[in-house]
Amino acid sequence: MPDTPSAARTEMQKMLAGELYRAGDPEIQAAAAAAFAWMARYNASLALSRDERRALLREGLGAVGPGSGIRPPFHCDYGFNIKLGKGVFLNFDCVILDVVEVTIGDDTQIGPGVHIYTADHPRDPETRATGLEFGRPVHIGRNVWIGGKAIILPGVTIGDDAVIGAGAVVTKDVPAGATALGNPARVRG
C-alpha cells in the first residue's frame, strides 16, 4: 500500500504500518475484543497439556514454531502480530503490546513478568492530546535469554545469543552475543 495516501487507509492499516492511528476505531476495538476472548480461554488452560495449549496458541498468535510455549497467564493487544520461532518459551505473566510485529527467534527463553512493548505515543504534547498512537516493531533474535521482569521498549532489536538481565529496561538495540543489564539497560563487556 505504499501508493495509498495515509488518509485513504483504515485505522487498522495505519496501525499495522506503524503510522499514527486511532486506537478507538471500531475495527481495532473488534480485533482487541477477539484477542481478549482468546486470552480468557488461553489463560484458563494451565491444567491442559502442552499440546492442547500449543493448539490454543496457534489460534491466537501470528506464528508458533514447533515446541514453543507460553505459560499462562499471558496478555497481549491482538496476538496476530506475534511470531514465535521454534522452541521459544515465555514464562508466567508476560505481556506483549503488539500493535505492530513482534518476532521472537528460535530457542529464546523469556522469564516471568517480562513486558515487550511496540505501542508508542507522540512526544509532542499537542499531537499526543489528540489520542493518536503509533507502533514500532520489536525483534528478538535466536537463543536469547531475557530475565524476569525485564521491559523491552518499542523499536528495539535484540541480537542472537544476547542476554538481558532481570529487571533490565531495554531502550536501545542490543548486539548479538552481548549482555545488557540495568535501567536503562547498558551493554556490559
UniProtKB/TrEMBL annotation:
Domain (Maltose/galactoside acetyltransferase) ranges: 12-66
MF terms in GO: acetyltransferase activity; O-acyltransferase activity
Biological classification of the source: Bacteria, Pseudomonadati, Pseudomonadota, Alphaproteobacteria, Hyphomicrobiales
Function: Acetyltransferase implicated in the O-acetylation of Nod factors.
Keyword Transferase found: yes
Gene3D superfamilies recorded: Hexapeptide repeat proteins (2.160.10.10)
Gene Ontology CC entries for this record: cytosol
Alphabetical UniProt keywords: Acyltransferase, Nodulation, Repeat, Transferase
Species this chain originates from: Ancylobacter novellus (strain ATCC 8093 / DSM 506 / JCM 20403 / CCM 1077 / IAM 12100 / NBRC 12443 / NCIMB 10456) (Starkeya novella)
Family, as annotated: Belongs to the transferase hexapeptide repeat family.
Keyword match Ligase: no
InterPro entries recorded: Hexapep, Hexapep_transf_CS, Hexapeptide_acetyltransf, Mac_dom, Trimer_LpxA-like_sf
Protein name as catalogued: Nodulation protein L
